[in-house]
Design brief:
The longest helix has 34 residues. A hairpin with a 2-residue loop joins strand 5 and strand 6. The chain has a four-stranded mixed β-sheet with strand order 1-2-4-3, sandwiched between helices. It is globular. The chain has 18 helices and six strands. With 458 residues, it is mostly helical.
Length: 458
């Protein structure tokens, strides 16, 4: 497209301070998110639960939930500083060009002549860079699992299992990353200025392949899926699926308790063949009707085409990313600002482009969270129309208590970070008042609920 080419030329200005601009973006984002976290921390210091939850959550549970939230907030602050130090160190010490040159030297010395091109060089660079960042972040990951989650009783993993998962993840990254990254680079190299069209088609193909292969070859590496046993729960879920014409193929229980005490349920699969997965922790801690109510909410997303809409938005976003990348891929001033003066690798261009796009990503994240919260309220309303209002409310309260999820949230923090409404808002929309549903709740009469939200999965 001519206008993309013109835009690319206008942005490629010799001596333009791309490095300073990107550092400014990073600092501004860190300060902004720190400001939001400060606002949320004040909420986490409250000593009484919201009025909606006063009859549902005892003081001890509320205090523990608040303490868990504060602990995560402090950990997030420290890990955020750690991440910023890494970013600044990478930029200040020109880690990317130094590592690129080093891997190029290794490639020239130890690889056959036929394997010294940009694709092989990129693969070696990428996997070594990924290994280095993984090692650097090990203390943060270890603390999160074995100190923070352990303190509040959620961690069920062992060091052996944690290390095994880590090694499996690295091996899987190499096994899948090698062909995918090679194909990405080959498409860009061979298709000229219109490469983003072909990358877009390639991206869709990869997603469809992942949907098919994930439950068969990837998920079993980390978790065990077992068919749901015959009983009231299986009968109830199958009846719900039949009632909604949901193309249910199989019902599974996943051993989530092997790693964590958190609970959830979800579905996956192709449009004509779906699978439902229920965490064993959810089954153990909920009544049968409550689990069915949770799934009525999840299937509400399917029935209301939320998953289809989000998939479509994701495809548009992917196309827009690749199209904008075509603007930056030949931007010599961007490369040179970060120490690349002789070589202009595609992967480096994509990394730097991603950093330059960070402000736009913040806006997109905000808008997607607004849409996601809207969909969550609609899925709750769908469950109400199916007759699961009371059971869903009870289940949400139980999950809130079991997961020590956020009981309340600052509106600015929630709007930016959370994809799900907080419990008081959801209970208000469900018309829940202790043991009975309120008569004529606003949210069920067409008035839109508030956009306050939480990051809990459901």
């Amino acid at each position: 497209m001519d206008y993309l080419r013109v835009l690319g030329q206008s942005l490629d200005r010799s001596g333009f301070p791309w490095k300073k601009l990107i550092i400014t973006f990073q600092v501004a984002q860190y300060v902004f998110e720190g400001f939001l976290s400060f606002r949320q921390y004040k909420i986490l210091q409250e000593t009484r639960p919201p009025k909606t939850l006063e009859g549902e959550v005892d003081q001890e549970t509320y205090d523990k939930s608040q303490a868990y939230g504060r602990a995560k907030a402090r950990f997030g602050s420290i890990s955020g500083i750690y991440s910023q130090v890494q970013n600044f160190g990478t930029i200040y010490y020109d880690v990317l060009p130094r590592l690129w040159d080093l891997t190029g030297t290794w490639l020239f010395r130890y690889c056959p002549q036929g394997f010294t091109g940009e694709i092989t060089h990129t693969l070696i660079f990428f996997f070594i860079y990924n290994l280095i960042t993984t090692i650097i972040n090990l203390p943060v990951a270890y603390y999160s699992t074995f100190v923070l989650e352990e303190k509040f009783g959620f961690n069920k993993s062992t060091v052996k299992l944690w290390v095994t998962d880590l090694l499996k993840g690295q091996a899987l990254g190499i096994a899948l990353g090698t062909p995918l990254l090679s194909a990405f680079l080959a498409i860009v190299q061979k298709t000229g200025n219109s490469f983003f069209y072909y990358l877009f088609l390639f991206g869709i193909s990869v997603q469809l392949f992942a949907i098919t292969i994930y439950p068969i070859a990837i998920l079993p590496l980390f978790n065990k899926l077992s068919p749901l046993k015959e009983g009231d729960l299986k009968t109830g879920v199958e009846a719900l699926a039949k009632r909604l014409d949901f193309p249910l193929k199989e019902l599974f229980v996943i051993d989530g308790s092997k790693r964590s005490a958190h609970s959830n349920a979800y579905f996956y699969g192709l449009p004509w063949k779906k699978h439902i997965v229920i965490y064993d922790t959810l089954i153990e801690k909920s009544e049968t009707e409550e689990v069915v109510a949770v799934l009525s909410h999840e299937l509400g997303h399917w029935s209301l085409s939320h998953t289809t809409k989000l998939f479509g938005i994701a495809q548009f976003h992917m196309f827009y990313i690749f199209a904008l990348f075509s603007v930056f891929i030949n931007n010599r001033s961007l490369y040179q600002s970060f120490g690349f003066h002789k070589e202009f690798p595609i992967i480096i261009g994509f990394i730097l482009f991603s950093e330059a796009l960070a402000p736009m990503d913040m806006v997109i994240k905000l808008l997607m969270n607004v849409l996601s919260r809207k969909f969550e309220f609609e899925a709750d309303e769908f469950a109400v129309k199916l007759g699961y209002s009371t059971q869903l409310a009870k289940s949400l309260i139980k999950l809130q208590i079991q997961n020590l999820s956020t009981m309340d949230a600052d509106w600015m923090y929630a709007s930016y970070h959370f994809s799900h409404p907080i419990l008081p808002e959801r209970l208000g929309a469900l018309g829940w008042s202790g043991k009975e549903k309120k008569a004529g709740p606003k949210a069920m009469n067409g008035e839109k609920p508030s956009s306050v939200a939480t990051g809990r999965e459901l």
